[in-house]
Amino acid sequence: MDTFMAIRQIIQEGNAFLRKKSREVTVFDQRLHTLLDDMKETMDGANGVGLAAVQVGVLRQVIVVDVGEDLIELINPKIIETSEETASEAEGCLSFPGQYGMVERPLKVKVEAQDRDGNLFTVEGEGLKARAFCHEIDHLGGVLFVDLVTEMIDADDAD
Ligand code: CO
Question: Which residues contact 29 (CB under 8 A, 6 or more apart)?
Answer without folding.
Answer: none
